[in-house]
Amino acid sequence: MKKLFGLLVFVALAAFVVACGSNNSDETSGNGGNSGDSGDNGGATGEVEIFSWWTGAGEEEGLLALIEQFEEEHSDITVENAAVAGGAGTNAKAVLATRMQGDDPPSTFQVHGGEELNKSWVAADKMQPLNDLFEKNEWMDKFPEDLIDLVSADGDIYSVPLNIHRGNPVFYNMEVFEEHGIEPPKTFDEFFDAAEKLQDAGVTPLALGDKESWPATQIFENVLLGVLGPDDYDKLFKGEIAFDDERVVEAAETFGKMLDYVNEDHSSRNWQDSAQLVSSGEAAMINMGDWAKGYFVNDLKMETNKDFGYFAFPETEGTFQIITDTFGLPKGVENPEEVKTFLTFLGSVEAQDTFNPIKGSIPARVDADPEKYDAYGQDTIEDFKTARLVPSLAHGSAASEGFLTKANQAVNIFVTQRDVDNFIQALQNAAPEM
Ligand code: GAL
């Protein structure tokens, strides 16, 4: 509770500070309202702002490489990196909401394909369709159809997918597994056997850093996927299966059991801090989106399939928890043509093959070059072609932001109280907002 209150105060402060900052940017850019398409040159200003939460280790390098490459090719346009630090998106989303409501949108912003894009921004009539951009660049068959669907509403396309992250891998320390004779577990039973063995040997079985709730929500969504299977997982978030279904109760119990095997200081760590436990060998495994792979390789200098291995979260093999970072064109930007030039670049093979090997994700385009990716990336590119795709709740694709906020709160309370009935009740209560 104390933690939650602290977080709310922090988010409110961040929103206030940036709201003040954005007034200043109004003065310099003169972007005071819904100017829309203005004139033949698209209101050229020579500046494009990219808004994201990619500031920390493992997050920022890919973005900076993208910006540098774009500026090299477009000497007439400067890219302003407007990333907002802290909370792996929590703070950035609060700031974004303030700016969008105040008619001071960034030129383009990071948004997950699916409900986060659709329910938060498209439904509020804040985004411009990009069908012309997709047609002009002949992108319709360059991005998988399922992905185009995730960034579309009522036949219009609203953003350009830059990457595809996977939310259901488990990364593990290979030396620790070897030392304790552990094989990658495929089922929950195998997972708990391995966890018991590791715990007895004094190793933390599963690293968790839920300073922000989403890494715990991510574990829960993967347990749900494992217990329900992909079809019923989809039905749950379409409201066709209720949260008091006995299998959701079973998933909550399994999730609770997993929490018995996490590091004690989980609530004071962020995702990078918890991934470090796996790199040092204090913990054996972590369920984290594959931005952790980028962090392991680029920041912690670990080698894929030598220092760390990976497997699908128990009972989710053959499914792909999809998280896609996309960028669209908000209504009201004063230089839409320049922003489109930047979006065209984000959608290019070249940009995707610069960004994704660093970020740990795979390219959203089907015609990118697999040779640019390590063994993990190449496996994931292959899996993506055949796996059953499911949208992530924790990363905004499966349900609205309103539901996700409440689900994160419910998870946060469950992590400390472990009351399955209360947890299920809280999810049930939030369900109408999905
Ligand atoms: C996700 C985002 C990823 C990564 C991660 C951790 O929501 O899609 O790109 O940034 O958060 O910050």
Describe this structure in words.
This protein has 2 domains: 49-164 and 325-382, Periplasmic binding protein-like II (D-Maltodextrin-Binding Protein, domain 2, 3-Layer(aba) Sandwich), CATH 3.40.190; 169-321 and 393-433, Periplasmic binding protein-like II (D-Maltodextrin-Binding Protein, domain 2). Helix content is 49%, strand content 14%. The protein contains 17 helices and 16 strands. The radius of gyration is 21 Å and the shape is globular. Bound molecules: beta-D-galactopyranose (GAL). Residues 53-54, 59, 88-89, 165, 289, 291, 323, 325, 395 line the site of beta-D-galactopyranose (GAL).
Topology:
Blueprint: H1 2-29, E1 47-51, H2 60-73, E2 78-81, H3 90-101, E3 108-112, H4 115-122, E4 127-128, H5 131-136, H6 145-150, E5 152-153, E6 156-157, E7 159-161, E8 163-166, E9 169-173, H7 174-179, H8 188-200, E10 204-206, H9 214-237, H10 246-259, H11 271-280, E11 283-287, H12 291-299, E12 308-312, E13 319-323, E14 325-330, H13 336-346, H14 349-359, E15 362-363, H15 375-386, E16 388-391, H16 401-417, H17 420-430
Parallel strand pairs: 1-2, 1-3, 10-11, 13-16
Antiparallel strand pairs: 3-14, 4-14, 5-6, 7-14, 8-13, 8-15, 9-11, 9-12
Helix pairs in contact: 1-3, 2-14, 9-10, 9-16, 10-17, 16-17
Bound molecules: beta-D-galactopyranose.
Please state the structural category. Answer: alpha/beta
Regions with pLDDT < 50 over 5+ consecutive residues?
1-39
CATH class of the largest domain: Alpha Beta
What's the architecture of the largest domain in CATH terms?
3-Layer(aba) Sandwich
- Mean pLDDT across residues: 91
Alpha carbon gyration radius? 21 Å
Tally of strands = 16
How many domains, in number, for the residues?
Answer: 2
Terminal-residue CA separation: 24 Å
Which fold name is given in CATH as the topology of the largest domain? D-Maltodextrin-Binding Protein, domain 2
CATH homologous superfamily caption of the largest domain: Periplasmic binding protein-like II
The set of bound ligands, ions and cofactors reads:
beta-D-galactopyranose
Q: What characteristic shape results from the CA principal axes?
A: globular
Helix proportion range: 40-55%
Largest sheet report: 6 strands, mixed
Work out the helix count: 17
Share in β-strands: 5-15%
